[in-house]
Structures are given as structure tokens and as C-alpha cells.
UniProtKB/TrEMBL annotation:
SUPFAM superfamilies registered for this protein in UniProt: vWA-like
Name of this protein: VWA domain-containing protein
Domain VWFA: 97-201
Domain of life: Bacteria
InterPro entries listed in its UniProt record: UPF0353/GerABKA_families, VWF_A, vWFA_dom_sf
Organism: Methylorubrum zatmanii
A Pfam family per the record: VWA_2
Length: 301
């Protein structure tokens, strides 16, 4: 009973194709009935003795079978369904926009070889842990620039990150607010949810109360003994987690766990469960019936 209650068609409009199929079948059947016009003027008992070849007529004609194929195809395309199944995209990891500070202070060698190099190493470890997830890149100093929108190709992200240096940035400064806002707009334009990962060693620019539409994680690229007060203030303004750099992968694993559990958009197509269509089960039957049209003389039967 539960199956009957849940049974429905995902695309019921395709069932309208059954109407012209039935009409064409009826018209063709009337046209091919050679005895129909004689029944008006000859007694039926006598007529059956006068007609020649009627006893050889098959009870199933090509037109009858064509109607059956048409009905089956219409039902299959309409998408019969009665049970749900998890979406293949339900477990997909949400995308992340990496916001990387590319300023002269990032060349400080206290995180050997430099803070910027350590940021690239941590980014490579993070992308490896989140294999298959889409990642984008924003670089900022005195101005913010979109380097790459979210892509599942981790190699491209790392190659572009390797090419970044303070010398190529057009302006010195700390446009941290503009960089976060740019990353937020990129994620909003993609419509797939996601998170922002802010990788910086300090924050000299002002940051008011956050109006960003996506969660933020702040990755502090500083030695353990250095003060992270400015970045802590940014984290409070953004209601973000502050992750400190470690010599092992504990920091990267913590960031990966947060990115995987946050930033999921409930409205993303393919999330959760969807109706499991059963129309494709009719495909072998349609193929089997179609084989009859390769039979010699079938169409002219």
C-alpha cells in the first residue's frame, strides 16, 4: 500500500503522447478492416463465407505492437517513481574560496622558508585532504584580485598559488575586508554554498561586523609564540574559527573538518534524496519489441 500511495510520475505531461497514439491506432485499424464496409449490405453469417483470406489474419498486427511500444515509451519517459534514493551528490564536499594574503610581511622567514611558502605547503596538504572538492583562490594586499574561481583541479590552484608574490601585487596594504567580500560574491554566484578560508599573518585593515553570506575560517600563518590578537579580532568580527599553524598536519586537519561540515547549501540541486525513477527498467522490453521490425515481411504483414 505504501508503494501505491507513493507512486507517481516525475514528468506526467509526457503521458499526453498516449492520446495521439490511441487515435492513430484506431484510425489505422478502421482503415485496414476491409470487411467493415461490406457488413452494412451483406448479412454477417453470409459475409464470413464470402471473404477470402480473413482466417489468416494475425490477432497481433504491427500496428497493435506499435501502439504497445508507444505506450511503454510514454510511460518510461514520464518517469514512474515510488521510492526515494540518496543523491550521488549528497556527500559532495562544499567548495572553498581561499583568500591568501600576499604582502611583504608574508616573506618573513620565521615559518621556514617563509610564511608565504608555508601557506602554499599548508594549502597543498589541505587540497590533498579534500580531494575532489572545488577550491578557488583570491589574492590580496592593498587590493583584492580573483585568481581562480572554484575548480576541482587542485593542480591548477597550486600552480597559480606558486606564482603569487608581493612583487606582482599592484598596491601594498591590507584589503582584507575587500578580499573576503570578493570571495563571498564568487561563492554566491556559484550557487553551491561553500566556505571562505582566510590565510594571513596579520590584519592591519579595519573589519566591521560581518555581513558575509558564507562561513569563514581564519588560518593564522604565525609561529606559535607570536601574538595573534589582530587575527583574533578578525575572527570575532566574522564569527569565524581561528586555527593556529602547527608543525604537523593537525592544523590542516582541523581546517578540513570545518570546511567539510560547514557551507552546505540546502537548496543545492542534487543534495539530500530524490525520487528513484523506474522508467529505465522498461528499456530492455522496448528493445526486445523493436526487434520485430527487423523480421522479414513484418511491416507489410
Amino acid at each position: 500500500m505504501s508503494i501505491l500511495t507513493a507512486f507517481h510520475f516525475e514528468r506526467p505531461a509526457w503521458l499526453l503522447l498516449l492520446l495521439p497514439a490511441a487515435a492513430l491506432w484506431y484510425m489505422e485499424r478502421r482503415r485496414s478492416d476491409e470487411a467493415r464496409r461490406w457488413r452494412r449490405v451483406i448479412d454477417p453469417e453470409l459475409l464470413r463465407h464470402l471473404l477470402v483470406g480473413q482466417e489468416r489474419r494475425s490477432w497481433l498486427s504491427p500496428n497493435d505492437l506499435l501502439l504497445a511500444v508507444w505506450v511503454l515509451a510514454g510511460v518510461a519517459v514520464a518517469g514512474p517513481a515510488w521510492e526515494r534514493e540518496p543523491s550521488p551528490f549528497a556527500d559532495a564536499k562544499p567548495p572553498v574560496m581561499v583568500v591568501l594574503r600576499v604582502a611583504p610581511t608574508m616573506m618573513t622567514p620565521d615559518l621556514a622558508p617563509t610564511r608565504l611558502d608555508r601557506a602554499r605547503q599548508k594549502l597543498a596538504d589541505l587540497l590533498k585532504l579534500r580531494e575532489g572538492a572545488s577550491s578557488g583562490l583570491v589574492a590580496y594586499s592593498g587590493s583584492s584580485h580573483l585568481v581562480l574561481p572554484p575548480t576541482p583541479d587542485a593542480g591548477v590552484v597550486l600552480n597559480l598559488a606558486q606564482a603569487l608574490s608581493p612583487e606582482i601585487m599592484p598596491r601594498e596594504g591590507d584589503d582584507i575586508a575587500g578580499a573576503a567580500a570578493l570571495a563571498d560574491r564568487v561563492l554566491a554566484g556559484g550557487g553551491h554554498g561553500g566556505s571562505i578560508l582566510l590565510m594571513a599573518d596579520t590584519a592591519t585593515g579595519g573589519f566591521g561586523p560581518s555581513r558575509l553570506g558564507h562561513p569563514v575560517t581564519v588560518f593564522a600563518l604565525l609561529p606559535p609564540d607570536q601574538d595573534r590578537g589582530r587575527l583574533a579580532g578578525v575572527a570575532r568580527a566574522l564569527d569565524a574559527d581561528l586555527v593556529a599553524t602547527t608543525v604537523d598536519q593537525v592544523d590542516v586537519e582541523a581546517v578540513a573538518r570545518r570546511l567539510d561540515r560547514t557551507g552546505r547549501a540546502a537548496e543545492v540541486a542534487g543534495e539530500g534524496q530524490h525520487w528513484k525513477e523506474a522508467g529505465y527498467w522498461l528499456t530492455p522490453l522496448l528493445a526486445l519489441l523493436a526487434l520485430l521490425w527487423f523480421r522479414r515481411g513484418w511491416v507489410t504483414a
